[in-house]
Amino acid sequence: MSPKRYTFVLIAAAMLSCMVSAEQPAAHTSAVVDNDFVQKQFGSTCALIGVEPLKADLDGDGVEDIVIPARCKNPMMDQAEDGFVVVDPYNSFFGYGNPKVTTQFASEDPDRRGYSLLIIHGAGADAWHSATPKAKFMVVNLPFKNVIVKKMMVKKNKKPLMGIFAEETGGDQATSVTFWDGKKYRYQPLGASME
């Protein structure tokens, strides 16, 4: 083979290789949960608080969801623009959970004012980091120090559900669980410490 022909074959092979790799879809990468991600999903008034996000199938559809502990200064401001629903299952349990009113309540601990759980119900292969997730919720007024996700049994369900268990603030070291009942998030106090 002549040197010119050899060079032509190498260039053609390199071009073909580039075209083939360009046509293949990019490898699936996991989204990074940082303040940019949180603010893109829930608005500019939200920021991470240093508690690790939790991943689990919260709504029982077989697709991974995420719970992100964060601080949101004005929960109601960005919900229409960013497509999430502000919910207050904690105050709903105690009688009145309208977040338009309850987000104005003063926190027992001023350092924890605005603490929220940001929940994204995943959709499709990209799950919770899909460009169009199934649903997004901001759970407000839950007085948590720490949260974990674990399976739980609910009387009317025959199979276990995933619940968000919280170690609550306050001197009594109470725990609670917040779970998706198929229509909305519900709060249930449990009493004893998680330790």
Structure annotation, total helices: 5
Rg of Cα set? 23 Å
Element order: H for helix, E for strand: HHEEEHEHHEEEEEE
Strand percentage, roughly?
25-35%
* Mean model confidence by pLDDT: 81
Helix percent reads 10-25%
The helix/strand class is alpha+beta
Gross morphology: globular
Q: Can you characterise this structure?
A:
There is one protein chain. By secondary structure, the protein is α+β, with helices and mostly antiparallel strands. It has one domain (35-189). It is built from 5 helices and 10 strands; from the N terminus they run ααβββαβααββββββ. The strands form 2 sheets. Strands 1, 2, 3, 4, 5 and 6 form a 6-stranded mixed beta sheet that branches. It has a 4-stranded antiparallel beta sheet with strand order 7-8-9-10. β8 (161-168) and β9 form a beta hairpin. The longest helix has 21 residues, at 3-23.
What structural keywords apply?
four-stranded antiparallel sheet; 195 residues; disordered N terminus; 30% strand; 22% helix
Write the layout of secondary structure elements.
Layout: H1 3-23, H2 35-42, E1 46-48, E2 54-56, E3 65-72, H3 79-82, E4 85-87, H4 89-93, H5 99-102, E5 115-121, E6 135-140, E7 144-152, E8 161-168, E9 175-180, E10 185-189
Parallel strand pairs: 4-6
Antiparallel strand pairs: 1-3, 2-3, 3-5, 5-6, 7-8, 8-9, 9-10
